[in-house]
Structures are given as structure tokens and as C-alpha cells.
Amino acid sequence: MMEELTALDPMTLKVSELLKEVHLQTSSSFTKLVEDTVSAIRESINQIPEGLEVTAKEARGFVRDIGADKAEFKFKRPSYIEVCGSYSINSIARPDTGVDILLRLPKECFNEKDYLNHRYHAKRFLYLCVIKKFLKSSSSISKVEWSTFQNEARKPVLLVYPANNISEAPEFFVRVIPTAKSLFDVSRLDLRRNNIRALNQDGSTLPSPRYNTSILEDMSLEENNEFLRKTFAGWKELGEALILLKVWARQRSSVYVHDCLNGFLLAIILSYLATHEKINKTMRPLQMFRVTLDFIGNSKLWARGLYFHKNVTITKEDRMKNIESFPVFLCDAHSSTNLTYRISKSAFSELQEEAVITLQCLGKFGDGAFEDIFTTNVDFSSKYDHYIRLNLKGSKEVYSSGFCLDDECWRLYEKQVHDLLSQGLGDRTKSVRVIWRNSSSGCSLEKGFSTLDREPLIVGISMSTPEKAFRVVDIGPDAEDRDAVLKFRKFWGEKAELRRFQDGRIAESTVWETKDWTKHLILKRIVEHVLVRHLSLSETNITQIVDQLDFSLLHGGTDPVSFFPNLLGTFEILERRLRSIEDVPLKISHVQPLDPALRSTSVFPPEPHPLANEKGSGGKLSKLTSSCIQPLEVMIQLEGSGNWPKDDVTIQKTKSAFLLKIGESLQSNWGMRCDATEDEVVVLLSGYAFRLKILHERALALVNSGIATQRAKRVFGADKSLFFESQHASMIKGLLKPYPAYGPVVRLAKRWVASHLFSASLADETVELLVAYLFVKSLPFKTPCSRITGFLRFLRLLADYDWTFSPMVIDMKDDLSPSDKKEIEDNFRLSRKGYAGNMQNISPAMFLATSYDKASEAWTSSSPNSMELKRLIAYARSSANLLTKLICQDESDSLRWECLLRTPFNNYDAVVLLHGDKLPFPRHLLFPSLVNQGRVVARGNASKSFSPFFSSEDLRGRNLQKLKDKLMVDFDPLRLYVTDLKREFSTVKLWYDALGGDAIGLTWDRSGSKKRQRDEQEDEEKDPVSILKGVGEAGKGFVKSVHLVKVPKLT
């Protein structure tokens, strides 16, 4: 027990602080606000004349649309107005500050048979209409508006806002909820009875269980409220457990919604567990929270129905009737009312899954469990792999059979969409979630229901596996099964076709032919076909969030990842040739690809270049044949030998000699072009350039042991970097097969980083590790299977992670031992130790630990620094908010999506614009940059000495060898220009896009070393315009213009 308490302590402490923050305590000022507002409501109601004639004229539209045949009555004031809900049991959880009151509808206003044909619902609304009219005339009340009870349009409620408010509850309102205690004979509302005459099939009436329960719910509200009040009275821990459950549920928008959970149901479930002694007064709130989630997620009692009565025998027939009528049945403590009648089958499945995932989070105390459970937003946009919006505004198909029968038309349409998509997508999906928030506060319900379609219907789809989701062929029934074939063809229409398969089987099928790089669009095509065919929707009314950001990864209209199989095949040829070399003293024992393009994480993996071929061969030249080629890094290791020299310089020269010899061998044996330097050899093969480097492990051992001299460490630092690259490449390669979405998410993340000019702040490897963290540590989510969902989670991770006080541990295979984790924690604390008083300059600001790098040396030791990270976080938060808005709201404008990748230049002190046609790969440029702020201080003409494409004159000659000689390997004028600027202008901080941007952002850098401070003192004497002119002069022929956006404060 003591061990459990020790393990719980950190979590319990955080939970205690959370409760202090979110629990709205009933202070004297808040209590007075509640009492004054309720008193104002009572006074307004008391002003209503007794016997006032109320007719359907008060709300013709509502009465018409609800289908009520009688609605007249004489007004009588309510005899019962009582505060209820969270306020009555002291469990209001911020940001909610509303208080509920129950208002008993007088029996004199109703007839004996008003339970028929929506008469009750019509009179209920008309009664509230009268009250609303008088409330609006009260000086104590600022506003009165309509809302609905759990999104049920036929059961409106009033929201009353007081004229005066207090700071601790600025959004305070009182919700007026009518009750119907003892209005009708309960037996008349049996689940098997029909109480809506229009509800029939082929002349036979059908039961109306949902309609009946809707009335029974109002009849039992008072008793259930009193039951909750007694259960929670004097039990502080139970109230706190309820608050924790509310906070947890609110973070999960797929379950805290009209067809699933709400605060009342959470209180009821807690009361059920307390009544059945599953929780008791010896438990703490967190323990009750865990027990409740375990009950929700794992209890088998849900399948039989839940009953508060311990000693009352429920017949098997009644149990079956209840379960057949509703997916979930929880009978209240006083009647036969199902309190969970709104919960749908799909919603309950989602709820159980969320509960199980949360229990998994609870099982890992000390590893972000609290944040995963209570502070991470598991909303629709980040939870599901595929998001759909249906614009149904003005669609009469939705209510063609009437707005309200047994259930409301919006709920029926939700079910119809769910069933269609579930049938069409089959085992491609794990779950389909459909929600239509059709009613919102402030609507004019008096006019009817026709305006309750303003909000789009939203669908979230969780894929089962990428292999199933992106399957090209679906096999249907065998040709001999005529009934099944007719059903299949009726569903799929022209997409159904008869096929013979390799095993000889002849069956119906649907085929979704597509290129490999567009397989992620297969689900989109299926959804569109099904919805257009069966719901008569136009394609313009169906928005699917799938490919809106694909434009950022395309090159010439094609995703260059399509060349990956060709690239991989070329590398395998290179590997075989390297391993087969015989005329080198030591055989090559290992060849490893290090470049991101060789692990599917490069934004622009190279296309085969027609001039990068062996001697005497060449590809087809086009008008836009590039004059540049980027080499792909490859590491080689030689077999072991004791004859390596021990002197650092001699080791380096020996490596160079090996590289030269390897290059000569490749050239002489296979006619490959090779360019050699002291550190590397670049070889051209089948359209690609490969940069070969040798890893010398003895040098690495010397550096790690601390024996090597400072000079040796500088020389061998390259080996250590190469070792890190090797370990990293192996680790990332292991993610590609189990997580096919990993590569596309990384590519989007890298594109975003570069487009906002953070290329110098986040290394490619850093981005890959951040995204890897999302996949290997996916809780409280499931592993993402789509690129946009993964990208949104990446932005939120960057924005919300506690970088200052928490190391990020990327444990790919869950194989870090306790001693490894302790070493990482010790290294992290050591990195923060010297900055206790000033956390602005901590290093590394972003601590990323892996099995091969437990001290975060490899990728983030120098960047991002604290200032860069702060800027990154701000940009990530802004982009995450925009992306969430684009996903959830009815926004299909492509320009809005482009905003995610357009960086605002007003956040820089100066901007340098480059000639786009002088970039080595101009087609990588997303958008030509334009600066509208500040003033131009320098302009420059484009150089004629370089072109990213071979000229027509070069191509006309068709001399392949001359063209090959002109091919520039690893030429990047932006990189060279940035290097020059860093050397010449230490007072400016440079921000740029290494993927092909045509702009460089400059900020005035006031931080740094004594040397920089001396440089700054010298530069202070210069006018900022002079500095910027020097920046422009340094890039003569490459720089288009230099803009001073903000005048610097250099003194």
C-alpha cells in the first residue's frame, strides 16, 4: 500500500493543484449572484397573470414543425422552482459557471392525454415562451436566449443572464429546465407503446421508446436531482472525483457531446458505483476516477443494462426489451426511466475506448500521465485520421419525413450517415463517429426548426490499418450468390464490377485504381461515391480533410516520393558494387544510407538526373534539365584491422587514401564519375549522386573515452557526427514499415519548419525525432494514420510540450532500462542546473534523448536556443490553431490553407529577397515572397553567370560529356550566402528556408559572446541602412532587394 501511495504522490499533487484551479468554490459573492438571479426569475414569473390564455400563436413555427395537434392552455404559475445540478452538489468545474434550476410545469396546464403526438413538448415550449417574455422586461436581467436540453430541439431551455456579474464568474447564467413531475400515468409511456400516431409502417403503428423516454426524463428530473444531492452530501471526495471526470471528458469532444456523456450522467454513474459499493469513503478522488473509468471501459454489466435497485428483480423479458430499445440502458433509482437513452452505439464504443486508453495512461505514472489525461486536448480534429464535413444547410432531405417522430430527424440522419459509411468502408476503418450539433444558443426556436441546420454535420473516421484503409480492390460476394450480388450492386452502383481473381474465384468487386503516391486518397473517393449516391448530396457539399496540404510536397505536379523505388534500387546497386571491390586493402563491410531521401523523410527526394550516369550513358534531356544535383549521404565501414595508425592526422590521411582508392575502383570497374576530396567521394550512378564517407570507430572510441587531444577531437568530431547519423538512420528506418504515415507527416513538418524560416533552428533529424515521438508515444491518442492529423499533433507537441522542465525521451522500442532513464534524467538536470535563476538561456533548450544520445548532444546542443525555441512555440501554436479551425469549420478556400505555410515578414527587422530564378531548384519554391512593409534600402540585378537549368544553347549541342562536366554537384548559393553573412555580420540573426525559399529574415541579435559585443560596438557606429546595404552587396547577383522593416535599437 505504501508503495502505491509513493507512486501516486506526484500525480496526486498535480491533481490537487488542478482541483484548486478548476473547482468553482461557492463564495459569498457567487452565492449572492445565484440567489439574486434566481430571485429575479421568481419575481418575473410572479408577474405573469394567472389564467393567461396561451395558444400556438406564441410559437407557430415550433408547434407546426413538432407536429403537435393540440397546444392551448391557461397559464398557471409553477409551484416549484429549485436550484439543481452541479451547484447543488458543489461540483461546478470551470470554465463552466452556469447554474441549473428546475421549474415544475403545473398539472393544470395539461390534459390527461397530452403525452400523445408531441402535445407535451409543444405546451412545454409555449410555457417557456410566456416566461421568456416577462423575463426580458426585468431590469435585473440583461439577456434571455434559447438553448436546448442535451441538443434535443423539441426540449428547449432558457438561458438567463443577470445584469450584474462578478469577476470569478464572468460568463454566469442560469439555465431554466422544466420538469413534469406526476403529469402523466407512467404506464402510458411504456417503451413498447406508440404515442405518435404518424409513426407507422405499412399501416401498422410502431413503438416510440425514445419519444416516451423524452417525457419520462422530465417526469423524473426532480427525484433524480434529489437523489444526487443526498448521495453527494458531505462527501467531498466524491464531488472532486466528479470534477476530475468532467475535466477529462471535456478534453474529449467525441464523448462529451449530446449522444454520449454530460455532467449529469457522470454524476449518475458515480452514484451508481457508490450505491453498489464499488467506491467508498476511504478512497481518494483519483482512485474513484480510476474505478469509474475501469467500470465504463471494462464492465460487462453494460451488456445487461444497469439498475440502481439492488433488491428489485428485473424479468428477463424486461431486460431484453430495454436492451433492444437502446444501445445503453441505465435505469434510474425511482422509476423505469433510461437515463442514457441518448447515448448511441458508436458513441458508447468511443467512450469505452477513451476510458481504456486513459487507464493505460494512468499505468505510467511519472511519464506525462497527468498531462495526457487532464490537459491534452483530444478533440475531433486531432483524434481521427479522416475528417468529413457535410454542409446540409437548406437540405430538405433531412426532414422530408418530419422533424420529430420517435427520434429527431437530425439524430436519424446521423445514424443514416454512420451506417452508410460503415458499410461502404468496411474493415478499412476501426470506427466511424458522426455528430451534428444542430442546435445552438441564441436560435429563434419560435420560428421552427428549419434554421437548425447551420452547423455542418461532422464525421471522424479512425482507420484500422493503412494496409486495409488504402487497399485498391474490395472483393464482394461470389457471382453465384444472387441475393448478395443484387444487394452489392444496389449499394455500389456503377462501381461494382464482376472480376476473376488469381485463385480462380469469380466475384463482385470495387476497384479504386490509383498511383502509389495517391493511395491516401482512396478513402476520400469511397466516401464521396457513397454519400453522393445514397444521400443525393453534391460534391461541393462534402468537404474531406485529406489532401489540402499535398500541394506543398509536389514537384511539377507529382510527388517526388514516387521515385523512391527507383532510388532504392540504385542504392542497392551501389551497395553491391562497393562490397564487391577487391583492389582496396580492407574490404568494405558495411554500407548504410544516411540521407533522409533514402528513408522516405526528405521533402523533395531527388528525381533521376539524365546526366548523372555512368560513362557513355545518359537519360533523355528536357528543356528544364537542372544544372545542379544534390548528393545523398552514404556511410561506409571497412573491415577491422590492427594496422590503423594511432596518430590523428595520419588516420585522417589514411581515410582519404581509402576514399580515393574506392573512387578509382568504381571509376575503372563500372565507368562511374567520381569526385574526391579529403573527407568524401561523390559518385554518380543511374541518375543520382552519392556522397561516400568512412566511419572510423577507433577514432570515435578515442573521443568518447576522453583520451584524445583537443586537436584529435576536432578531427574525430566528424566520426562522432557520422556515428550519430548512422544510429539515427537505423532508428528512423525501423519506423517506416509499422507506421506508413510517418514519412508524409515528417515531410509536412519539415516543409512547415522551412517555410517559416526555421531551417537553421531545427535540424532535419530533430524534426524526425519529434514526429517519431508522436508515433511511439501516441497516448492519449491512437497512432496517427493520416498526414494532416499527424501534422496537427506535431504542431501541438511543439507548442505545448514543457521544454524547460521536461526532457523528451524517444524510446523507439521501449527498451531503455531504468538505469538509462536515470542517466537521461541526470543529464537533463545537469543541463538545467546552472540556469536556476535565468531559464532564458538554458542549453540545450530542447532536450531530446534517445538510446544513442542520452545527453542531447547530437541534434539540439546548439539550436534551437531559448530565443529560437520561444519563437518556434509561438509559430507552432498559431499554426495549430489555424489548422484546427480549417479542419473543423466550413472553410474550403485553398488560400486559407496556404496561410499555414506563409510566414509573416512583419515579425522580422529586415528581409532580404532573392532572385527566385537563381535558386538551384526554383520549383521547390512554395510562394514567391512579397514584402509590403518598411522601405527598400538596396536592389540588385540577377547574375548571368548561373542558371538552375541548362541553356537552350547547351542542350542544342547535345554533347553529353560537356554537359556532364558542367553539372554542379552540391551547389547551393543560399547556403554559401548565409555562411558569408554569418561571418561578416555578427549583429544580425539569420532566418531562412533551406528547402528553396527566396527570402531571408533578419533580426538584430543583441545576445552572445564578448567578441560579438565588440562587433556590435563597432556596428553601432554604422547606420542600420549601411549594414543592410552591406548585406545586399555580399549577395550581389543573388539578392533582389533588401527591406528595412523595423528600425533597430542599437544603443
Helix content: 40-55%
Q: Distance between termini?
A: 63 Å
Spans of at least 5 consecutive residues whose pLDDT stays below 50 are 1-8
Which structural class should the secondary elements be placed in?
A: alpha+beta
> What is the count of β-strands?
32
Radius of gyration: 35 Å
Q: Helical segment tally?
A: 32
| Overall form | elongated
Instruction: Estimate what percentage of residues fall within beta strands.
Output: 5-15%
Average residue pLDDT: 90
Q: How is the biggest beta sheet arranged?
A: 5 strands, mixed
Biggest sheet: strand arrangement = 3-4-7-6-5
Describe the structure.
By secondary structure, this protein is α+β, with helices and mostly antiparallel strands. Helix content is 41%, strand content 14%. It has 32 helices and 32 strands. It has a five-stranded mixed sheet, sandwiched between helices. Strands 19-21-24-23-22 form a five-stranded mixed sheet, with helices on both faces. It has a five-stranded antiparallel sheet with strand order 28-32-27-31-30, with helices on one face. A hairpin with a 2-residue loop joins β8 and β9. α20 packs across α21 (710-736), α22 packs across α24 (787-800) and α24 (787-800) packs across α26. The longest helix is centred in the last third of the chain and has 27 residues, at 710-736. The relative contact order is 0.06. It comes from Linum trigynum. Belongs to the NRAP family. GO terms for molecular function: RNA binding.
Secondary-structure map:
Layout: H1 2-22, H2 28-46, E1 53-54, H3 60-66, E2 73-74, E3 81-84, H4 85-88, E4 99-104, H5 119-135, E5 141-149, E6 152-162, E7 174-179, E8 200-201, E9 204-205, H6 209-232, H7 236-250, H8 263-275, H9 285-298, E10 306-307, H10 316-325, E11 330-331, H11 345-362, H12 369-375, H13 380-383, E12 386-390, H14 409-425, E13 429-435, E14 457-463, H15 466-469, E15 473-478, H16 482-492, E16 496-500, E17 506-511, H17 522-535, E18 542-545, H18 564-580, E19 588-593, E20 628-629, E21 631-638, H19 648-670, E22 674-676, E23 681-685, E24 688-694, H20 697-705, H21 710-736, H22 742-755, H23 764-776, H24 787-800, E25 808-809, H25 818-833, E26 848-849, H26 866-888, H27 894-898, E27 910-914, E28 935-939, H28 952-957, H29 960-966, E29 968-969, H30 973-984, E30 988-992, E31 999-1004, H31 1010-1020, H32 1024-1034, E32 1039-1044
Parallel strand pairs: 4-7, 10-11, 20-29, 21-24, 25-26
Antiparallel strand pairs: 1-2, 3-4, 5-6, 6-7, 8-9, 12-14, 12-18, 13-14, 15-17, 16-17, 19-21, 22-23, 23-24, 27-31, 27-32, 28-32, 30-31
Helix pairs in contact: 7-8, 7-9, 9-11, 14-17, 20-21, 21-23, 22-23, 22-24, 24-26
Subcellular location: Nucleus, Nucleolus
Main location: nucleus
Domain Nrap protein: 99-232, 239-376, 382-536, 559-734, 739-891, 906-1042
